[in-house]
Design a protein that fits this description.
This protein is α+β, with helices and mostly antiparallel strands. The chain contains five helices and eight strands. It has a three-stranded antiparallel sheet with strand order 3-4-5, with no helix packed on it. It has a three-stranded antiparallel sheet with strand order 6-7-8, with no helix packed on it. The chain has a two-stranded antiparallel sheet with strand order 1-2. The termini are far apart.
Length: 196
Amino acid sequence: MAPTASQLYPIGERYFPVFKLNHPQGEKRSPVGILVGRQALRIAAAAQYGIELERDTDLLWIVEEVVSMKTLPDGWTAYTDQGTKRTFYNHKQSGKSIWEHPLSDFYRGAIFMARGGTETLLGTEEENPPTPDEVAAMAEYMDIQISEPAEVLDVVRQAVNAPLPPGWEEYLDEQGDTAFRNPKLKKSSTEHPLGN
């Protein structure tokens, strides 16, 4: 029995079919149709984050987290907008609603680091070691005490030279403070994109 697309499920700006099996009356339902639909959601989530399912096996945990909806941060719930049929996320306590998964910046940072960001950080630190003043300023920015263990301070030292993920740029805001923006994603932040 061939599956038929029963509805379109939106992820990001793209729509993907959710399949259900057509069963004759009285026949037991098979979970196969649901699995086909979950696979469509996996493909959509992978496409949203630029993950190739066959090649990027080390990043499949991201796809599974986005699809499962069980890993939403506390207070967040996923809903489907009835008008657009797109998924949106709402934080009940703050009343904030967003179209992207609340952990999207974290996922993009993890993808960036897995695709060479870690090596870039280590190479940059070796070529241009941060000064003690830069480390102290970064520790203050990250709200880390300079007396923390060496492993924690290694992260602080690497953060001094942390490159921005693709699409992000650094600029000075109206108060003259450092800020970051991604015009394509229409996002801006006073926090480094990898630190969110």
